[in-house]
Amino acid sequence: DEIIPKRLYPRYRYHPKTLPFNVTRSMLRQSRPVIGNVQRLQAYIEKLHSEQCTTVLFLGGSVTDGHNTWLGFDDSYAKFFIDWMNERYPCRKEDGTTGEHVSKRTKQN
User: pLDDT value at position 53?
Assistant: First the structure.
């Protein structure tokens, strides 16, 4: 499996102005040192595999919002993750038409 789908390469593969490094499997494994109870995660993955659209809530402040990035939120980790989700796990609305996974952020002060 590709970590970054080919259609997203122009934006998320290494380039000094977009992403200053390549995301590796080792990086992804190290980002989750404590696994814990995985039942809810398994249920979420089942939704993805059955092409159900989902909403992801991102908690955080300036980093989540894309502060000090080239394009603000459009250049943030949250946007990157949702782009990846839509490419890797396409979904369908209840009426059968093509849908999108969406993100929500906590309200800023």
Answer: 95
